[in-house]
């Protein structure tokens, strides 16, 4: 999905205020508790692969910007030219956001869902009962000053623990960071004994919504129950069960 221009990750990433593409990604392994993440990388075609290298080949969890790219090269990853990430659709979105900002002033502009649509997340349960989660995102159109989103932060945008669940989030990242949303789902299951569905609904429909945050998440537990709550008009999502056909949805059921 990072190779498709349709998603806000890899090839289709949104543009920053300065007309760059700066990407965030995180992966968490629920069996081992290991995690890897990158933030603000500009020359990595598949940021989630780099996050995985951080998890598997470094002694760190989160690498940022130039340093993350030096690490990528030392691990044999090829850097791509910034032009690779250009898509007219995302460029035009930035121009619209800049025009709105000029008219209304920076703080009057509330980002619409179109300014970010398309973060890529995945949660999985394998046949041995292991959970994992991953998220990759270009972040939010017109982001400034090296802004990093929840997609780069373990616990905010991505979480997995074999004892509870695997979670990947999408939405206005500032709210997901303040609420440590992905971890919160697992914490409600562990400490309050909630089911996956109850915990995820409480986090999105109560906690996030009360704080006026917008977005959603996908989550799966060890029994293979899954849930995909959101408080926006729609959320691109899909699932595939063993032996079944892929199911894809955008709006509510
Ligand atoms: N959560 C991402 C961010 O704030 C954007 C998104 O998921 O739409 O960077």
Describe this structure in words.
This protein is of the alpha+beta class and 253 residues long. Helix content is 28%, strand content 22%. It has six helices and eleven strands. The protein has helices spanning 47-57, 65-74, 88-104, 173-178, 181-192, 196-210, and strands spanning 23-29, 35-41, 62-64, 120-125, 131-137, 158-160, 165-171, 215-221, 226-227, 237-239, 247-249. The strands form three sheets. It has a five-stranded mixed β-sheet. A four-stranded antiparallel β-sheet has the order 6-7-8-9. Strand 4 and strand 5 form a beta hairpin.
Structural class: alpha+beta
Which oligomeric form is depicted? Answer: single chain
Helical fraction equals 25-40%
The helix/strand series, from N terminus to C terminus, equals: EEHEHHEEEEHHHEEEE
Describe the sheet with the most strands.
5 strands, mixed
Shape label? globular
In percent terms, what proportion of residues is strand? 15-25%
Give the radius of gyration: 17 Å
Say which molecules are bound, naming each kind only once. Answer: aspartic acid
Strand order of the largest sheet: 3-2-1-5-4
Q: How far is the N terminus from the C terminus?
A: 23 Å
Q: How many β strands by DSSP?
A: 11
What's the quick description here?
By secondary structure, the chain is of the alpha+beta class.
Task: List the keywords.
253 residues; alpha+beta; single chain; five-stranded mixed β-sheet; four-stranded antiparallel β-sheet
């Amino acid at each position: 999905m990072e190779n498709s221009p349709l998603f806000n990750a890899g090839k289709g990433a949104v543009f920053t205020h300065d007309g760059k593409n700066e990407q965030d990604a995180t992966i968490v392994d629920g069996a081992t508790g290991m995690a890897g993440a990158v933030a603000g990388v500009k020359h990595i075609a598949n940021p989630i692969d780099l996050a995985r290298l951080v998890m598997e080949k470094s002694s760190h969890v989160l690498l940022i910007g130039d340093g993350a790219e030096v690490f990528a090269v030392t691990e044999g990853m090829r850097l791509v030219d910034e032009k690779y990430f250009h898509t007219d659709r995302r460029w035009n979105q930035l121009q619209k956001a800049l025009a709105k900002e000029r008219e209304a002033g920076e703080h009057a502009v509330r980002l619409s869902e179109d300014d970010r649509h398309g973060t890529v997340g995945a949660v999985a349960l394998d046949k041995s009962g292991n959970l994992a989660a991953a998220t990759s995102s270009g972040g939010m159109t017109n982001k400034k000053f090296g802004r990093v989103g929840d997609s780069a932060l373990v616990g905010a945008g991505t979480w997995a623990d074999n004892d509870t669940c695997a979670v990947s989030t999408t939405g206005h990242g500032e709210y997901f960071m303040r609420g440590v949303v992905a971890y919160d789902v697992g914490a409600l299951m562990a400490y309050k004994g909630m089911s996956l569905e109850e915990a995820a609904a409480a986090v999105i429909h109560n906690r996030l919504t009360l704080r006026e945050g917008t977005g959603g998440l996908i989550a799966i537990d060890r029994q293979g129950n899954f849930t995909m709550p959101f408080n926006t008009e729609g959320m691109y999502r899909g699932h595939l069960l063993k032996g079944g056909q892929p199911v894809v949805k955008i709006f509510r059921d």
